[in-house]
Amino acid sequence: xxxxxxxxxxxxxxxxxxxxxxxxxxxxxxxxxxxxxxxxxxxxxxxxxxxxxxxxxxxxxxxxxxxxxxxxxxxxxxxxxxxxxxxxxxxxxxxxxxxxxxxxxxxxxxxxxxxxxxxxxxxxxxxxxxxxxxxxxxxxxxxxxxxxxxxxxxxxxxxxxxxxxxxxxxxxxxxxxxxxxxxxxxxxxxxxxxxxxxxxxxxxxxxxxxxxxxxxxxxxxxxxxxxxxxxxxxxxxxxxxxxxxxxxxxxxxxxxxxxxxxxxxxxxxxxxxxxxxxxxxxxxxxxxxxxxxxxxxxxxxxxxxxxxxxxxxxxxxxxxxxxxxxxxxxxxxxxxxxxxxxxxxxxxxxxxxxxxxxxxxxxxxxxxxxxxxxxxxxxxxxxxxxxxxxxxxxxxxxxxxxxxxxxxxxxxxxxxxxxxxxxxxxxxxxxxxxxxxxxxxxxxxxxxxxxxxxxxxxxxxxxxxxxxxxxxxxxxxxxxxxxxxxxxxxxxxxxxxxxxxxxxxxxxxxxxxxxxxxxxxxxxxxxxxxxxxxxxxxx
Length: 539
Known about the structure:
Blueprint: H1 6-13, H2 19-32, H3 37-49, H4 52-65, H5 72-75, H6 84-95, H7 102-109, H8 114-127, H9 129-142, H10 145-161, H11 164-182, H12 186-202, H13 209-217, H14 223-235, H15 243-253, H16 258-270, H17 282-285, H18 290-302, H19 306-318, H20 321-330, H21 338-347, H22 351-362, H23 370-386, H24 391-419, H25 423-435, H26 441-452, H27 466-476, H28 481-487, H29 493-505, H30 511-521, H31 525-538
Helix pairs in contact: 1-2, 2-4, 3-4, 4-6, 6-8, 7-8, 7-9, 8-9, 8-10, 9-10, 9-11, 9-12, 10-12, 11-12, 12-14, 13-14, 14-16, 15-16, 16-18, 18-20, 19-20, 20-22, 21-22, 21-23, 22-24, 23-24, 23-25, 24-25, 25-26, 26-27, 29-30, 29-31, 30-31
């Protein structure tokens, strides 16, 4: 080997039978970077014929020396190698040639699949530039869902390396590409559209929001496209979410497609929303699926301001038991919730809802102003008169502080109903007085008097006669039932005889009532019966 240069001897070692010597030669050549066709040819033979380990070192050496277009014939086949590191090294070597390989890459992409396709896309990613970017976009149209996800990542590499001007160019190219796809078959172009939308999000450009918003709201689009648009919207909202964006997210969160809905809900949960957009969450808070409703209600609970409070109160008013309870819990600690909760309690006719609202107001009892207590009083009286069971929670909140006013209001209502000859409604109000512990003996007597008119007046059933039981209680308590009945214009001889007879049987008196019947009955049978009962009692 006398007369040969050191480089020639190293190149010759690439033909050595020992793999270790061939590998050492490739590594040294990579460090020395000698020029010459003989060097390239020798490395090309190693690349074409040797195993993966030697191929990788030969590729690195060739890239260090400088890959010529003539050397590409050895590199293209390696893009289909089973060894990922070989494919990676071959991609890097081909990309080192520069933009002149773009057309070759595009041509090969049309037929490539799997690892070879990804290796070709990696070349375009390494090259950068608008031409390579367009080539990757074109590749999306021929790709499937899996390959397009990989292509999108290569496109992201372009975006990350680009300056502001280039990014603007990429945005224009992406939007143009999406318009082109819009005219294609939706099902066939779905994966390409979704991938392009993903890349649009990588730009993190607020100016992409209109395009993304339109895609997210378009219910004719596949769910995968709308989902990517929602994700991309997160990155376009540097200045905060607009009302349109929130509405789009709420709409998607209510979609039948669970993946789309989940994306929308997670986006909503992670966003900083202005309080003014709280009402937009109302529909989602009332969604039939409790998990979706919970996210909306929890989000409302984090928002300050009157609108968020009013929206939560509206959910308490309209939601089912679980949603109403969650909204009531979210209202804890919100001072501005007291007035709307009072208004709701004064108006609701549903007992369970009224109980829930009353519990929410319990801790705010001291904060109830006179005007609020008056509102509750008026609402409770109206509910009681109407026969709604929801009157109790409202009046119970007021009675502790304003028992006298509650009693006066209920008696006034009972008097009004009595004048209107609405005995059933009057009795209901009187029962309310009694339930609240505010009824006087006169109130209880009036209730018994009304019920007495409904009695069958049969002494055999007196044990189950509520009117008689009330009168007996009053009698035992020292109330002069006989005097009250005799003065009551609504009580006739039949009723007086019945009460007198039963009282006499139960050792509660009753003689005065029977004597009154005898006195006023004249020759009537009822008077004779009263006289006979008195005679029997004297024996």
